[in-house]
Design goal:
- The protein is of the alpha/beta class.
- The chain has 3 domains: about 5-180, NAD(P)-binding Rossmann-like Domain (Rossmann fold, 3-Layer(aba) Sandwich), CATH 3.40.50.720; about 190-295, Orthogonal Bundle (N-(1-d-carboxylethyl)-l-norvaline Dehydrogenase, domain 2); about 300-385, Orthogonal Bundle (N-(1-d-carboxylethyl)-l-norvaline Dehydrogenase, domain 2), CATH 1.10.1040.10.
- The chain is about 50% helix and about 10% strand.
- The longest helix has 20 residues, at about 35-55.
- Bound molecules: nicotinamide-adenine-dinucleotide.
- Nicotinamide-adenine-dinucleotide binds near residues 10, 31 and 118.
């Protein structure tokens, strides 16, 4: 039973994770580099709890109880001395995270689980800094943690089943849906599939085959995704997209090449919504994406790439189709999961599209995953054939 948790780094993610744990009755200590940041984190939590009360999502009593459960401390060693769980949420820099894990291992009780909220870095590398790799795990919350339903639980090479089970139980207790990522692959599930789709959207525009408004109109109005690809990139922040893009390229090479368009904008200081300009000009308000452009770009191209990346995840035994679909729907707001969608569209058609694109451009990203070839050769072409990623009774 986890009674005490310490969060290292009380920024955008850390304060939200602390709030969630406190709402679930856990005693929380927030750690950051100075009092000023910690006070700001407490203010953000107060504000968020106030919104929940205002919208009648929780009674005022619960908000009061939650805030009473949160302490702060600038001394990491002191703050973790009695922790059952530590969640690290410091900036996405491996050297920093490694040094934190070393300190956590020395200062936290032997039974404590040490988790990282990293979006893209290796859990195994962090675990290697400790004498308890079996108790190190990825707990990848989505932003904002209090509202997003998904948590990816990432198994490092040495993570034990007990640690995964305890993490699943905890995530459920927080009212969230856990999806276990069975292997410590870069990008886990959501950022890997989403990254492939975003890269393809960028690539279409880089190749001059459609404009960004045409791509975004098709993505929003034809595919029914909540946001256009370029609109979403601007909202995430192009600096974040660029950093994650580089990590993915380092891990997967030509299959996940970072976009030169994003790099150019970042170097110009145009980081998206937060700086007022990215792909779109946010100074004039939210982007207006004309409905009349929705038919100008064929979204099957994005589905083909999503299906290929999904097939790779299944092939590498990172996750099963059901978990991938759940993760993509809850983590990104996609109306259907990529496996359901592929089965509906026909794996044979999507494979043919990939082959066509691979023949035309030679880009590695289009090289069909062997699993997809295998499914189609067996006649498992999707829903109408009775079997694809799923079996239909
Ligand atoms: N922001 C997102 O959308 C998002 C989503 C999922 C995961 N993540 C991951 O969560 C982690 C944190 O991201 P964020 O957006 O909350 O960053 P952030 O910059 O908002 O917060 C990081 C906090 O860590 C503190 N910090 C830095 N060094 C520290 C140290 N040595 N000890 C204690 N605190 C220290 C900073 O002062 C800051 O308050 C990253 O690994 C990121 O990849 C972010």
């Amino acid at each position: 039973m986890m009674k005490k948790a310490t969060i290292i780094g009380a920024g955008a993610m850390g304060h939200g994770i602390g709030e969630l744990l406190a709402l679930a009755g856990v005693d929380v200590t927030l750690v950051d580099i100075n009092e000023e940041v910690l006070n700001k984190a407490l203010e953000r939590i107060q504000w968020s709890l106030g919104k929940f009360v205002e919208r009648k999502r929780i009674p005022e009593e619960d908000a009061k109880n939650a805030i009473a459960k949160i302490a702060t401390n600038v001394n990491l060693e002191e703050a973790v001395a009695e922790a059952d769980l530590v969640v690290e949420a410091v900036p996405e820099k491996m050297e920093l995270k490694k040094s934190i894990f070393k300190r956590l291992d020395e200062a936290a009780p032997k039974h404590a689980i040490l988790a990282s909220n990293t979006s893209s870095l290796s859990i195994t590398e962090m675990a290697d800094q400790t004498g308890r790799p079996d108790k190190v795990v990825g707990l990848h919350f989505f932003n904002p943690p209090v509202l997003m339903a998904l948590v990816e639980i990432v198994k490092g090479d040495g993570t034990s089943d007990e640690t995964v089970d305890a993490s699943v139980e905890l995530v459920k207790k927080l009212g969230k849906t856990p999806v276990v990522v069975r292997k410590d692959v870069r990008g886990f599930i959501v950022n890997r599939v989403l990254g492939a789709v975003m890269n393809e959207a960028f690539s279409v525009v880089e190749k001059g085959e459609a404009t960004m408004q045409e791509v975004d109109a098709a993505v929003k109005y034809k595919a029914g995704f909540p946001l256009g690809a370029f609109e979403l990139a601007d909202m995430i922040g192009l600096d974040v997209m660029y950093e994650v893009g580089k990590i993915m390229e380092a891990a997967y090479g030509d299959v996940a090449k970072a976009s030169p368009m994003v790099e150019k904008l970042v170097k110009e200081g145009n980081l998206g919504q937060k700086t007022g300009k990215g792909f779109y000009d946010w100074k004039v308000g939210r982007p207006r994406i004309p409905f009349r452009l929705a038919g100008k770009f064929d979204v099957q191209r994005l589905y083909s790439v999503a299906t290929n990346e999904t097939a790779r995840l299944v092939h590498e035994d990172v996750a099963n189709p059901d978990d991938i679909d759940t993760a993509m729907k809850l983590g990104t707001g996609w109306p259907t999961g990529p496996c359901e969608q592929a089965d509906k569209l026909g794996l044979d058609k999507l494979l043919a599209k990939l082959k066509e694109l691979h023949g035309k451009y030679g880009d590695e990203v289009y090289r069909p995953c062997p699993l997809l070839e295998e499914y189609v050769s067996k006649g498992w072409t999707g829903k109408s054939a009775g079997k694809g990623f799923y079996s239909y009774g």
